[in-house]
Amino acid sequence: MSSPIEYRPHAIALSIAGSDPSGGAGLQADLKTFQQFGVYGATVVTMITAQNSLGVRRVENLPTELVIDQLDAVLDDIQPIVAKTGALGTAETIDAVHQAAQRFNFPLIVDPVMVSKHGDSLASEEAVAAYRRLLPKAFLVTPNKFELEKLTGITLQSNQDVAKAIHDLHQMGARFVLAKMGHVDGQSEHILGSGKENIAIHSPRFDTQNTHGAGCVLSSVITALIALGETDLKRVVQRAIRQVSIGIHNTHPIGKGTSPVETRVLANEPDEPTS
Ligand code: PXL
Predict the structure, then answer these.
(1) Residue 275's pLDDT band (boundaries 50, 70, 90)?
(2) In a domain, 167, yes or no
(3) Using CB atoms within 10 A of its CB, is residue 275 exposed (0-12), middle (13-18) or buried (19+)?
(4) Mutational test site, ligand 1, from 16, 20, 32, max ligand atoms within 8 Å of CB
(5) What whole-number distance in Å separates Cα of residue 48 and Cα of residue 37?
(6) Is 41 touching ligand 1 by the criterion CB < 6 Å?
């Protein structure tokens, strides 16, 4: 039987991310998403987590030098169209990726994932400072509300606060900013900043907790579409947000806790949520 996936041999994307053995987030989510779009995925592993749908039990960062050896091995041999970073772990690794990125001849998408040793949304001041240094190398940075507050030091209470924070990330060097604001007025809200204007993108809010890996899948769909040659970032982001809505709408109970976004429905037309 022939594969239903139409693939483009030169659509190659690289993910620099942590491992989630339960398969819902991290590099596993990235690879599944790439594959679904017919994009070849390469991965550089930054950290090993022991986690499942009920929670994160353990996080071990790989030595920075091993992360960079992986990156060098891939890039000495393979030419990606685009790369993304997920959880990078330590400030030392973020700085090393930053140094390596000086030689990247492809765009970098930075999902500034901040996970603590216990899997909470937490980051050391050193890691936050290192992410700020990485921003000039980011074609796109995709912070959630917590990460946006951390990166800018602004407590986000009003739309003006959000606009100021996005402006600050541009000032720090990020080319485009996609702020994932979560639930606002009964909808899910994203704001895409180009430096010239901010566009709000709304999508339906589904009444579910089953969104494990949603951030990873969103940045991976964006990465995959760029690998496929899409150049209109606004359209790419709008499509990626719709795709994640479809994935959330179609979650299956996998595990006993928070189910992952269903990647197996991605990239199937029509590109609209089914309700
Ligand atoms: O969803 C953020 C994330 C990314 N990557 C890894 C993770 C997590 C959250 O726990 O463990 C490896």
Answers:
(1) very low
(2) yes
(3) exposed
(4) 20
(5) 26
(6) no
What total number of domains does the chain contain?
1
Confidence of residue 8 (pLDDT cuts 50, 70, 90): confident
* CATH code of the domain containing 148: 3.40.1190.20
Residue bearing the CA closest to ligand 1, atom 2: 113
Among 57, 216, 218, 219, the mutation site with the greatest number of ligand 1 atoms within 8 A of its Cβ is 216
230-256 pLDDT, tens digit each: 999 999 999 999 999 999 999 889 999
Is pTM beyond 0.85? Reply is yes
Spatial contact of 132 and 140, defined as CB atoms under 8 Å apart: no
Tokens 């899948």 correspond to what residue?
A: 217
The answer to whether the CB of 43 is under 6 A from ligand 1 is no
Q: Alpha-carbon distance 33 to 216, whole Å?
A: 9
Q: How far is the CA of 246 from the centre of ligand 1 (A)?
A: 21
Q: What is the pLDDT of residues 177-215, one digit of tens each?
A: 999 999 988 899 999 999 999 999 999 888 788 889 999
Q: What is the pLDDT of residue 206?
A: 80
Q: Which two tokens stand for residue 222?
A: 């964006």
273 occurs within a structural domain:
no
* Residue 5 counted as domain residue: no
Q: Over pLDDT 70: what percentage of the chain?
A: 93
Greatest Cα pair distance, the chain, in angstroms, is 55
Does residue 123 have its Cβ closer than 6 Å to ligand 1?
no
Domain range enclosing 187: 12-265
Ligand 1 atom 5: the closest Cα is on which residue? Answer: 26
Which position has the token pair 């806790």?
257
58 in any annotated domain: yes
